[in-house]
Write a structure and sequence with these properties.
This protein has five helices and five strands, in the order H-H-E-E-E-H-E-E-H-H. The protein is an alpha/beta fold. Helix 2 packs parallel to helix 3.
Length: about 190
């Protein structure tokens, strides 16, 4: 079940209401969240592998920003709602610095790539029937340059050797936003 459908189903069982904005328009999102007890903001960053074109780019991501105005959407909603929860569906890390330190962003749920049960699984976490216990399979940096790589065309060349992800952060003494293996446990 899709996340919105699962949330609406659970809200109906609880006798609560859900206000939505299903666009990436920041002002519409803020308007929907303004009077809510909690605001859920869904952002994503996918990969097209050359089969789709998103925001003028065919294929893989060209940067580590959330797609579809995601950073501005989070900031706009957090500006009007003191209990903003950000749900991230992403193929890999994104840079969260534009909004992560906002005191109104009270939680981030790194939901990874959604599947057919993503909505039900997310509702279990959001409503507390299941404890979140996943661990990050990569490091999330504070800025893209912390990774020490860039997108290049041509033959593959790996001058960094084994010093990728957390090994690079350790070697260079770079403090990440969230380190490899970060997550909550029971």
């Amino acid at each position: 079940m899709a996340p919105l459908d699962a949330i609406k189903t659970q809200a109906q069982k609880d006798g609560t209401s859900v206000s939505t904005s299903t666009t990436d328009n920041a002002s519409q999102g803020a308007s929907a969240a303004q009077n809510a007890e909690y605001a859920l903001v869904f952002i994503n960053s996918d990969s097209g592998e050359g089969y789709i074109t998103v925001e003028g780019h065919a294929g893989d991501r060209k940067n580590l920003d959330a797609w579809h105005n995601g950073n501005d959407l989070v900031k706009a909603v957090a500006q009007v709602n003191k209990k903003t929860i950000v749900v991230v569906h992403s193929v890999g890390p994104i840079i969260m610095e534009p909004w992560i330190d906002n005191p109104n962003v009270v939680a981030v749920v790194w939901a990874g790539l959604p599947g057919q049960e993503s909505g039900n699984g997310l509702v279990d976490i959001l409503y507390g029937s299941t404890s979140p216990n996943g661990k990050l399979p990569y490091t999330i940096a504070k800025q893209a340059s912390d990774y020490g790589t860039s997108v290049v065309a041509g033959d593959d060349n790996f001058p960094e050797g084994l010093f990728i992800d957390y090994r690079r952060f350790d070697q260079q003494k770079i403090e990440p936003r969230f380190e490899f293996g970060f997550g909550l446990c029971k």
